[in-house]
Amino acid sequence: MNSDLGSCLRLARGLLRLYSLAVASEHRGVADHLLCALELLAKSEPAIEHLLDRAYLRGIGHHDSADPHTQRAEPQ
C-alpha cells in the first residue's frame, strides 16, 4: 500500500467504530459493507488484522446478546 501505517490505522479504527455503530443499531447490510472494507484494508496492511479480529468479535458478541434464549443479568 502506498500510504503509511498511521493512515491505515486511523482508517481501520474509523471503520471499526462505524461497524460497531451499524451492528448496535441493527443495520446489518451497512455493517456487512463496513466489515468488507475492513477486510480489504487488512489484506493490504497486515498490521491492522487485530482490528479486524475485534470487528469479528463485536459482531459475534452483539449477535449473542440479541439471542432471545440467552439469559440476561437481572437489574439490581
First CA to last CA: what distance? Answer: 51 Å
Number of strands: 0
Beta-strand fraction estimate:
under 5%
* Mean residue pLDDT: 82
Regions with little confidence, pLDDT below 50 for 5+ residues: 64-76
The tally of helices reads 3
The shape is elongated
- Structural class estimated from helices and strands: mainly alpha
Helix percent band: over 70%
Cα-atom Rg, whole angstroms? 15 Å
Helix/strand order: HHH
Major sheet attributes: none
Word description of this protein:
With 76 residues, the protein is mainly alpha-helical. The chain has helices spanning 5-24, 28-44, 49-65. 71% of the residues lie in helices and 0% in strands. Mean pLDDT is 82; it is low at 64-76. It contains three helices and no strands.
What labels describe this entry?
76 residues; 3 helices; mainly alpha
